[in-house]
Design brief:
6-stranded parallel beta sheet, single chain, 8-stranded mixed beta sheet, binds NADP nicotinamide-adenine-dinucleotide phosphate, Rossmann fold, alpha/beta, Dihydrodipicolinate Reductase, domain 2, 319 residues
Length: 319
């Protein structure tokens, strides 16, 4: 079965992902929707897309099977709900929404309508991260006790940009924190303790945070995120039998440094195909072909758990 895709929101990431369809078998990018017909036509022309729609409602009423929702996170909820109501499978960019209540509403709608919904947490689908999860599942690292790292990315403060604009879901937690929390969550599960410190810009949006996650049996994750300083963007997964570094930048990682007790260290390179977004698109196609309404790799319960942690971090930062 070939999946007919439509892109909602012809912005920066949509352009990168549109080019990735060249690496996705059994998928066709056939439509794009925008608030402006002119912008939809320009994007469609750039990527050879047949249908250009001048409203999101028109896109959702079209004959596509699946929507890739690439608007700013403040504009995910209403559009995801509309796409679900139209019976479309939806791949929602990270962060899934800007609040726990909105995430619950989208998940509920998807489950009630019986359509496939997934957060576009592309890192989980990269070959290097898939290999690392397999190593952990096979017990090669023993029991995982800690996951620590950062996603620091310096950006000049520009209040109108979606990264800093509260109306568009701005702030370091929803843009960068989602990656590190989701990364730790896939190995350790959902934490019972969240501690966060960080600083706010003059418009009240957070620019940085240090985050400590804890589990009742003493396992932990420490993470640094922020736009205020550059940093490597690496992660370490540490278990009782060894540790693995996902080399920078981990969220698009290709290299694993594997250190097992009693063994020589090993460097593994597992390249992405294309820029790396094709892996999540291929996964969605496989889920749809199998008749699944949720991904076993990025389940909606994980998305909700990560959103709950982000809400707690934001509240502790005074947002
Ligand atoms: N997975 C990744 O690596 C990755 C990387 C970057 C971004 N993202 C995620 O992708 C999403 C979009 O990010 P982006 O950087 O691509 O944003 P962007 O360049 O600002 O594009 C967003 C698009 O959304 C549409 N939109 C709809 N309602 C809007 C509104 N009220 N205000 C502004 N735009 C609106 C706009 O298209 P029209 O005006 O034509 O409707 C715009 O082109 C975010 O959730 C972000 O976290 C993911």
């Amino acid at each position: 079965m070939s999946v007919r895709w439509g892109i909602a929101g012809p912005g920066r990431i949509a352009a990168t992902v549109a080019a990735e369809f060249a690496h996705v078998p059994d998928a066709e990018l056939v439509a794009v929707g925008s608030r402006s017909l002119e912008r939809a036509r320009e994007f469609a022309g750039r990527f050879g897309i047949l249908q250009a729609h001048g409203s999101y409602a028109e896109l959702f009423a079209s004959d596509v099977d699946a929507i890739y929702l690439a608007t700013p996170h403040g504009q995910h909820t209403d559009l995801a709900l509309a796409a679900i109501e139209a019976g479309k499978a939806v791949l929602v960019e990270k962060s899934f929404t800007t609040s726990v209540a909105d995430t619950e509403a989208v998940i509920r709608a998807g489950r009630e309508r019986g359509v496939f919904v997934m957060e576009a947490m592309w890192t989980r689908f990269l070959p290097a991260i898939v290999r690392l999860r397999q190593m952990v599942a096979d017990g090669e690292l023993g029991e995982i006790r800690a996951v620590y790292g950062d996603l620091l990315a310096f950006r000049e403060f520009e209040p109108a940009d979606r990264l800093f604009n509260p109306a568009l879901g701005g702030g370091a937690v929803l843009d960068l924190g989602v990656y590190v929390i989701s990364f730790a969550q896939q190995f350790l599960g959902t934490p019972s303790l969240v501690h966060a410190v960080g600083g706010l810009y003059p418009n009240g949006v957070e620019g940085e945070a240090g985050i400590l996650l804890g589990w009742d049996d003493g396992r932990y994750s420490t993470q640094a995120i922020g736009f205020t300083a550059p940093g490597p963007g690496r992660q370490v997964v540490a278990g009782t039998k060894g540790w693995v570094e996902v080399k920078p930048r981990f969220h698009r990682g290709e290299q694993l440094s594997v250190h097992l007790l009693g063994r020589e260290p090993e460097e593994l390179t597992l390249p992405r195909t294309g820029v790396g977004y094709c892996h999540e698109l291929i996964h969605v196609g496989e889920c749809l072909a199998a008749g699944l309404t949720e991904s076993p790799v990025m389940p909606l319960d994980d998305t909700l758990a990560v959103q709950q942690v982000m809400a707690e971090v934001l509240s502790q930062l005074g947002r």
